[in-house]
């Protein structure tokens, strides 16, 4: 559908013309990158809403319609503040690492993405399910059910009728890997089957460090790195072949005092685990830290967190404060 057919504010229409966005698909392909047109956040939301409504009236948009430019797709984390930091969310077609200390909220954010991926493209999802590979603890099913019940609170931007129509629990596939052999078996056979059948468009490994840390001694670093690179190569292959974001949750290790680690967080005494061999395998490195302060929201209280971009080819090295609520992880407006 041609953009000239939409009823838009003259200021928004002028910006669309300057950017030579001629069709609704052009606009939806840009997604959150529309803020580079010089429009305010409310203008961008109005433009995206108008384009999405036009698609629903004429022809529903799917991820397949945007396949000619997959790099423009993003998987929303379900929060406008954090999506702004990530320019729309996780990139589709690449491996993203989310590291942090225990209790920082890494698994919480991973669960949130398992639900976000199930929304249509217009709402920042990929209209499919997720596979969640556990290597440490049992899958937090009770917390997932709580997040599902609270979706209308987290995603106030989505019609409640749409939220109620999605069977979230049925679209989260759970795998457990107790050792490296079972992990390789999972990503080599079972995960590709789910992707090929179109049942999932998000792969989560929680956590990537657990097995590689426990199965090797320090003197076995060469063999560990070989297996680590083999594993990451398989993740990259799955991501590229199926146009699927892969999220790897990672542990952290203490940093030496005074070290200048450009692959580590902006300001922290810890650094992501597995060293340089693993750092070279990820496209985006994020870190979630737990801060000293706390915040309140109604009857809820949360320790303050901070989500930081450590490195990414398309993002500035920046961060946003966040908190964990009943409905999920949300950015804190400052």
TrEMBL record:
<protein>
    <recommendedName>
        <fullName>DNA repair protein</fullName>
    </recommendedName>
</protein>
<comment type="similarity">
    <text>Belongs to the RecA family. RAD51 subfamily.</text>
</comment>
<dbReference type="GO" id="GO:0000722">
    <property type="term" value="P:telomere maintenance via recombination"/>
</dbReference>
<feature type="domain" description="RecA family profile 1">
    <location>
        <begin position="71"/>
        <end position="252"/>
    </location>
</feature>
<dbReference type="GO" id="GO:0000400">
    <property type="term" value="F:four-way junction DNA binding"/>
</dbReference>
<dbReference type="InterPro" id="IPR027417">
    <property type="entry name" value="P-loop_NTPase"/>
</dbReference>
<dbReference type="InterPro" id="IPR020588">
    <property type="entry name" value="RecA_ATP-bd"/>
</dbReference>
<keyword id="KW-0067">ATP-binding</keyword>
<keyword id="KW-0547">Nucleotide-binding</keyword>
<dbReference type="InterPro" id="IPR016467">
    <property type="entry name" value="DNA_recomb/repair_RecA-like"/>
</dbReference>
<dbReference type="InterPro" id="IPR058766">
    <property type="entry name" value="HHH_XRCC3_RAD51B"/>
</dbReference>
<dbReference type="GO" id="GO:0005737">
    <property type="term" value="C:cytoplasm"/>
</dbReference>
<comment type="function">
    <text>Involved in the homologous recombination repair (HRR) pathway of double-stranded DNA, thought to repair chromosomal fragmentation, translocations and deletions.</text>
</comment>
<dbReference type="GO" id="GO:0071140">
    <property type="term" value="P:resolution of mitotic recombination intermediates"/>
</dbReference>
<dbReference type="InterPro" id="IPR013632">
    <property type="entry name" value="Rad51_C"/>
</dbReference>
<keyword id="KW-0234">DNA repair</keyword>
<dbReference type="Pfam" id="PF08423">
    <property type="entry name" value="Rad51"/>
</dbReference>
<keyword id="KW-0233">DNA recombination</keyword>
<dbReference type="InterPro" id="IPR047348">
    <property type="entry name" value="XRCC3-like_C"/>
</dbReference>
<dbReference type="GO" id="GO:0005524">
    <property type="term" value="F:ATP binding"/>
</dbReference>
<keyword id="KW-0539">Nucleus</keyword>
<keyword id="KW-0227">DNA damage</keyword>
<dbReference type="GO" id="GO:0140664">
    <property type="term" value="F:ATP-dependent DNA damage sensor activity"/>
</dbReference>
<dbReference type="GO" id="GO:0045003">
    <property type="term" value="P:double-strand break repair via synthesis-dependent strand annealing"/>
</dbReference>
<dbReference type="GO" id="GO:0005657">
    <property type="term" value="C:replication fork"/>
</dbReference>
<dbReference type="Pfam" id="PF26169">
    <property type="entry name" value="HHH_XRCC3_RpoA"/>
</dbReference>
<dbReference type="GO" id="GO:0033065">
    <property type="term" value="C:Rad51C-XRCC3 complex"/>
</dbReference>
<keyword id="KW-0963">Cytoplasm</keyword>
<dbReference type="GO" id="GO:0090656">
    <property type="term" value="P:t-circle formation"/>
</dbReference>
<keyword id="KW-0238">DNA-binding</keyword>
């Amino acid at each position: 559908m041609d953009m000239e057919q939409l009823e838009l504010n003259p200021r928004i229409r002028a910006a669309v013309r300057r950017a030579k966005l001629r069709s609704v698909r052009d606009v939806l392909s840009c997604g959150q990158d529309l803020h580079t047109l010089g429009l305010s956040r409310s203008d961008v939301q109005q433009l995206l809403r108008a384009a999405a409504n036009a698609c629903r009236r004429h022809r529903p948009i799917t991820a397949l319609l945007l396949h000619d430019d997959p790099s423009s797709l993003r998987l929303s984390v379900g929060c406008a503040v954090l999506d702004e930091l990530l320019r729309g969310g996780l990139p589709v077609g690449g491996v993203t690492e989310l590291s942090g200390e225990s209790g920082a909220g890494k698994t919480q954010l991973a669960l949130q993405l398992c639900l976000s991926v199930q929304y249509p493209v217009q709402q920042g999802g990929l209209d499919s399910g997720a596979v969640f590979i556990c290597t440490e603890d049992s899958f937090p099913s009770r917390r997932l059910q709580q997040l599902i019940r609270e979706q209308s609170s987290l995603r106030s931007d989505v019609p409640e009728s749409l939220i109620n129509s999605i069977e979230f629990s049925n679209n989260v596939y759970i795998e457990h890997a107790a050792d490296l052999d079972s992990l390789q078996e999972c990503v080599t056979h079972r995960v590709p089957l789910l992707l090929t059948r179109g049942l999932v468009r998000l792969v989560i490994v929680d956590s990537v460090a657990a097995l590689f840390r426990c199965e090797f001694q320090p003197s076995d670093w060469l063999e560990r790195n070989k297996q680590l690179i083999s594993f990451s190569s398989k993740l990259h292959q799955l991501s590229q072949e199926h146009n699927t974001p892969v999220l790897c949750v990672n542990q952290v290790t203490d940093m030496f005092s005074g070290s200048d680690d450009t692959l580590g967080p902006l300001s922290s005494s810890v650094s992501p685990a597995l060293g340089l061999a693993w750092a070279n395998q990820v496209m985006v490195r994020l870190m979630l830290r737990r801060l000293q302060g706390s915040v309140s929201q109604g009857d809820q209280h949360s320790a303050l967190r901070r989500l930081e971009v450590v490195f990414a080819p398309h993002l500035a090295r920046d961060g946003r404060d966040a908190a964990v609520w009943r409905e999920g992880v949300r950015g804190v407006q400052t």
